[in-house]
Specification:
Layout (H helix, E strand, L loop, with lengths): L8 E3 H8 L8 E2 L7 E7 L11 E2 L5 E4 L12 H8 L3 E8 L3 H7 L5 E16 L11 E9 L20 H13 L9 H19 L22 E4 L14 E4 L1 H9 L3 H22 L2
Helix pairs in contact: 4-5, 4-7, 6-7
Length: 289
């Protein structure tokens, strides 16, 4: 969750201020203010003339091309290495040139950046353009999956995930932790990524038993399927070798979820929440089953 509003345009200085960076020119920004986050900008004048361009797909995911303006792109490039690691959330912006009127009003020729939302990197693959200035070059493109304030909600009922819940939380914890602790696969399918993420979110929902895991209050209302409505919060934006882990998520009421992101005491609040989840996970490990 960020302070940016989807569809609203910002100047580059605002992006640099948020991330804590002084990078002069780059499509991928990172900085000390948000160490688990990357800002990726898409579009501009280069684009299709080079024989490729970033692309939003019909399912809401994106193909986002890596960095490296000449020759073959390499994953050891600083920006590409961060994208391929799976350890960063991505704030994605599209780029456009200002109109003549905007240049006069703003007194600047600087580009404008429209916020598209927050994404995770699910994988990447090589792409070779057939024409344009980069024809024949081996490029890397990254698959970006959108996430929202409530995380992944790809299920409406528990049965949608086709999970065997008979073993209780302890068995579910073990299976999901085993999946998440594998080394990140840069070619993981979108379907697998979404399934694993949705499964961990369901686990957090069941672990909470309808009680906010921060303030201890009952969920404000029930979902259509009868489960309590709580929003799933990531304790850290680092993907930890996979999209989600049981130990890295908490089921929160809407008030606590926003406190975790926006409050003046969010760091202290986040530390207490992490400690609480560690305790709950140890209880699940030692008691359930």
């Amino acid at each position: 969750m960020s302070t940016f509003v989807v569809g609203q345009e910002y100047e580059r200085s605002r992006l640099l201020e948020f991330i804590g960076s002084r990078q002069a020119q780059s499509g991928v920004l990172w900085g000390a203010n948000e160490p688990g986050c990357l800002i990726c900008t898409s579009g501009g004048r280069g684009g299709k003339k080079a024989g490729y361009s970033d692309e939003r797909l019909s399912d809401g995911t994106w193909w986002y091309f890596g960095q490296g303006r000449t020759g073959d792109q390499i994953l050891s490039n600083a920006a590409n290495a961060k994208l391929s690691s799976g350890k960063y959330s991505v704030l994605l912006f599209t780029t456009r040139e200002p109109t003549a009127r905007e240049v006069v009003d703003r007194g600047s020729y600087g580009k404008l950046f429209s916020y598209c939302g927050q994404f995770n990197v699910s994988g990447c693959e090589q792409f070779v353009p057939n024409d344009g200035g980069r024809q024949g070059d081996k490029l890397w493109r990254f698959r970006l999956l959108p996430i929202g304030d409530e995380g992944y909600n790809y299920y409406s009922e528990e049965s949608d995930l086709d999970l065997d819940l008979s073993g209780g939380l302890r068995e579910m914890q073990y299976r999901l932790t085993s999946l998440g602790s594998r080394k990140a696969e840069i070619r993981a399918s979108v379907a697998e990524y979404r399934f694993r993420s949705a499964a961990v979110h369901l686990y957090a929902s069941l672990r909470s038993n309808g009680i906010c895991e921060a303030c201890g209050l009952v969920a404000p209302f029930a979902r259509p399927d009868g489960r309590a409505f709580l929003e799933v919060h990531h304790l850290t934006r680092l993907a930890d070798e996979g999209p989600d882990l049981p130990s890295n998520v908490a089921a929160l009421c809407p008030n606590c979820h926003r406190r975790a992101h926006y409050s003046v005491d969010k760091q202290e609040f986040g530390k207490k929440l992490k400690d609480a989840i560690v305790l709950k996970e140890n209880i699940v490990l030692g008691v359930e089953g």
